[in-house]
Amino acid sequence: MSITVSSFGEYPDGREIQLYTMANQSGMQVSVTNIGAALVRVLVPDRNGRMADVVLGFEKGEDYLDNPSFFGAVIGPNANRIGKARFSLDGVNYRLDANDGENNLHSHRQNGWHKRYWEAEYNDNSVTFSLEDGDGSLGFPGDKKARITYSLDEENGLTLHYHIASDRRGPLNPTNHSYFNLEGHDGGSIEGHELWLGASRYTPADAGSIPTGEIAAAAGTPMDFTRSKRVGQEIDTDFEQLKFAGGYDHNWVIDGWDGTLRHFAVLKDPGSGRVMDAYTTLPGVQFYAGNFIDAQKGKDGAEYGFRRGLCLETQYFPDSVNKPQFPDAVYGGEREYDSVTVYKFRAG
To answer: How many CA atoms lie within 13 A of 24 on its CB side?
Structure first.
């Protein structure tokens, strides 16, 4: 196991942006950077040993300061949506940035954690990024101290370990917004990928992608991935939830959630034979099929756009702070946030 550090650009205040690349004995490589604690590259072999980078991203750090589709970044302090950009907690009303119609999406588009400079420490097989975010920042309560550690093992497992402490109670629901394409980041549409989800229920949402509060069975609908199927098989069918979101962009409820690490997804590209198994300690996953990826140039001159990558964003459910029937995503004081997500790669 080894790590190399290289210059990756300059932050607007003059600080150097660095790229940290971990490599294991199998040849897998993972690169992360200070901006947004973003996952920049993941090189893994196909069934014939051919290496490809399977996450969408950019050539230099400065590009992550724009990044309209949130490629690779850590989203926080709250990922996904909060209805009407407001919530009430402990007798206090909080207003957030209404940046997705009347709702709040990913905390703040310009000033969220995905655009911030994270300090880094590293050893041979891991990089830990840390960030401090003050009380009232982006409308959220509490002096927050956040850490995320990326670690690579010899079994081609990439582990993301999040920890956040805050002196006041508030919603804490970070995620990583990487877009995967197992053919390669420049491999075209992901509609031919096959997906299994260990999630027999999901949270239906309204036309603004705010959950209604219901937890519905996926069986008998296009939302059912309890048997592996092509992402594109039913994505454009005449089903209200898919029409609302332009395809899959919903929260699935992970079966048997109890806070332990659970195997919740298998993603496979039949052409290359690359397979990604995903695990998490969290109760939900936002499966987003890249329905609204802005047309833009990525690494190696790749053209990104509509459904060129997909996300499996582990999380608490959207709008949990306003839905007491959902798992509690309010942390602070003695209740510190801690979660683990693992993406593990193999050839099949």
So the answer is: 18
Partners of residue 121 on adjacent β-strands? 128
Cα 248 from Cα 218, distance rounded (Å): 13
- The CA–CA distances, whole Å, from 241 to 209, 237, 245 equal 9, 10, 7
Of 207, 150, 164, 175, the residue nearest 312 (C-alpha): 175
Whether residue 124 has pLDDT greater than 90: no
The helix/strand/coil state of 123 is coil
* pLDDT tens profile 161-181: 999 999 999 999 999 999 999
Question: Do 260 and 242 touch, CB atoms closer than 8 A?
Answer: no
- Per-residue pLDDT averaged across 138-151, rounded? 98
Peptide bond into 12 cis (omega under 30): no
Nearest Cα residue to 267 out of 236, 281, 288, 284? 288
d(CA 224, CA 234): 10
Q: Which residue matches tokens 């959902």?
A: 326
Name the helix (H) or strand (E) containing 244.
helix 240-245
Do residues 127 and 121 make contact, with C-beta atoms less than 8 angstroms apart?
A: yes
The pLDDT of residue 348: 86
pLDDT for 238-265, tens place per residue? 999 999 999 999 999 999 999 999 999 9
Round to the nearest angstrom and report the end-to-end CA distance of the chain. Answer: 24
Q: Mind telling me the catalytic residues?
A: 177, 313
**264 Cβ partners below 8 Å, 6+ apart?**
197, 198, 199, 254, 255, 278, 279, 280, 285, 314
Alpha carbons 247 and 186: distance in angstroms, whole number: 21
pTM confidence score: 0.97
Instruction: Specify the DSSP element, H or E, that contains 166.
Output: strand 157-166
Beta bridge partners of 310: 180
User: How many of the other CB atoms lie within 10 Å of CB of 211?
Assistant: 24
**Hey, which residues does 78 pair with through a beta bridge?**
173
Residues 215, 216, 217, CA angle at the centre, nearest 5°?
135
